[in-house]
Amino acid sequence: MKKDLIAKLQDGNSNILSNLISAVENGHAGKQYCELYPYSHDTVRVGITGPPGAGKSTLINQLITLIRNENKSVGIISVDPTSPFSGGAILGDRVRMNQHALDPDVFIRSMGSRGEMGGLARMTHQVADIIASSGKDIILVETIGVGQAEAEIIQNVDMTVVVLVPESGDDIQFMKSGPVEYGDLFVVNKADREGSSRVAAILRDYVSDAFEGQGYTPEILLSTATEGEGTSEIYKQCLGFINYLKESGNLKLRRRNQYLSRVRNNVRDELERRFWTENITGDIAELISDDDLRTYSPSETAQRLIPKEK
Amino acid sequence: MKKDLIAKLQDGNSNILSNLISAVENGHAGKQYCELYPYSHDTVRVGITGPPGAGKSTLINQLITLIRNENKSVGIISVDPTSPFSGGAILGDRVRMNQHALDPDVFIRSMGSRGEMGGLARMTHQVADIIASSGKDIILVETIGVGQAEAEIIQNVDMTVVVLVPESGDDIQFMKSGPVEYGDLFVVNKADREGSSRVAAILRDYVSDAFEGQGYTPEILLSTATEGEGTSEIYKQCLGFINYLKESGNLKLRRRNQYLSRVRNNVRDELERRFWTENITGDIAELISDDDLRTYSPSETAQRLIPKEK
């Protein structure tokens, strides 16, 4: 049964893959997920992150072509509600993207942008594991990269490409506490517009500062993805960086740290699940009076609900 | 001692307030925070949210003046790293903002933009409680409103003003899963620029749809905050909406739901804290081999670490 599932998945059966992902998203296929997990390690995972309108999906589209030209298979996970891959953005984009829709070696999945705290990130990791177990060579994960769930997502890929535009200059300070911090490669897209060299210069200052004394400094590339300009170089740099990660032992290290962080998050979820089913019977709202609310801080009330430490 | 602290705080001693907030942020004043909490309920809390560059801090500056003209006191909490209130943005903004820096009835505090999952939001709530207990009439909370911590922050104010710009048209779809969803009042700032009427129309469509059959429909206002144009109307609408919340009983309901959500979050934090101190001795990394990592999914490993359910 287990071998069967893996065989069918790795045979490129997109329907099974799709249904399995839906089942896991709905909490109905935990066992199957765990069976597939050991087969998920050979796939390279690349995050493509940047603000809405930076041209991430156009770039991804070009990367898909480059990946397919090498006869490799690819999965795309989009966590950006404005992306044409998620059904957002304008019609033109969606049509352009769909050139790959009939290719059985291209699997595209979008994730809802909502969910409980942490739920979206954890679900995205599991979906990536399942797509990986189907034998795809590369997975591209598209996110806007702002916010904690987003950060948790791009911290769990092998490498991250940050896509900016010539107008991003003023926003880089802002994005330092987000996507920019996780960048292994920077792309200034729409580089035919004014300001691209300024943004590239700001990024060069940033990386030479932030990566001083480290084994590598992220490259900064210019592109005009709509014209396919600069995209081969981006793909080449991605492969080069992945190779560097493998050879330096950093890939193993990154994946180990990611695993530990995912375990911690799962522990938190499970502790919470058990607490609310075992310790609190009935509705929490009925346990807390208006007078409690005015008198005890939320942390005091939480302490009161949790059984005393031994 | 308790009365002393409250008396000093409510006497307008900004140094004590500042030091107390720092102590709470560093985890050193949990007891004092709990003592102050019951005094935190009379303050109105207004979230000011929107993308970087929308003019939130300029608007806040104008609101401070309007609030002070009524001889009310005000606290500002900035969770936006690009805000001049947080020391970001450009010098001109910072100078403009500082016109209120010497006013003892204006207290400004910025929050770091980082922290563990959830940590920033929970800390922001506590800082707001402390500032409220000092007797400020109004607290304005400035955030960019994208991301889960940000969402948790603007879900814990009495009302939220969403500030957009004429160029925001294409981003509204994107922001629906963020700031726009929590808007009780919408402001199209920099309205002298092209596109403001289009954005206002998009927002009108959105609110008439999203708020159909509810007790109220959020207003959509135009402003040019740098010139003070439209800002009195914004302030007036805020006061009007708060009144509506009070009279309809919705304020009590909102605060109750917020309290329950804060309790749930505190329970989660505390369960996690106890688990890692009581159940796991030594480094989690040493408990997990490379073979485990390749074989067991993070959820399976988490289950293995947690003692069996009885």
Map the helices and strands.
Two copies of one chain form a homodimer.
Chain A: H1 2-10, H2 14-25, H3 30-36, E1 44-49, H4 56-69, E2 74-78, H5 91-97, E3 106-110, H6 119-133, E4 138-143, H7 148-154, E5 159-164, H8 172-175, E6 185-188, H9 196-210, E7 219-222, H10 231-248, H11 250-278, H12 284-287, H13 290-295, H14 298-305
Parallel strand pairs in A: 1-4, 1-5, 2-3, 2-4, 5-6, 6-7
Structure summarized in a few sentences:
The first copy, chain A, has 310 residues and is an alpha/beta fold. Chain A has 14 helices and 7 strands. Chain A has a 7-stranded parallel sheet, sandwiched between helices.
The count of DSSP E runs of length 2 or more, i.e. the number of strands of chain A, is 7
Over all CA atoms, what is the radius of gyration of chain A? 22 Å
Percentage beta strand of chain A: 5-15%
CATH topology of the largest domain in chain A: the name is: Rossmann fold
Helix content of chain A: 40-55%
| Ends distance of chain A | 45 Å
Overall residue-averaged pLDDT value of chain A: 85
What shape does the CA trace of chain A take? globular
Number of helices of chain A: 14
Give the CATH level 1 class of the largest domain in chain A. Answer: Alpha Beta
Largest interface: A-B, 68 and 68 residues
Task: Please give the oligomerization state of what you see.
Answer: homodimer
> Which ranges of chain A are low-confidence, i.e. pLDDT below 50, for 5 or more consecutive residues?
none
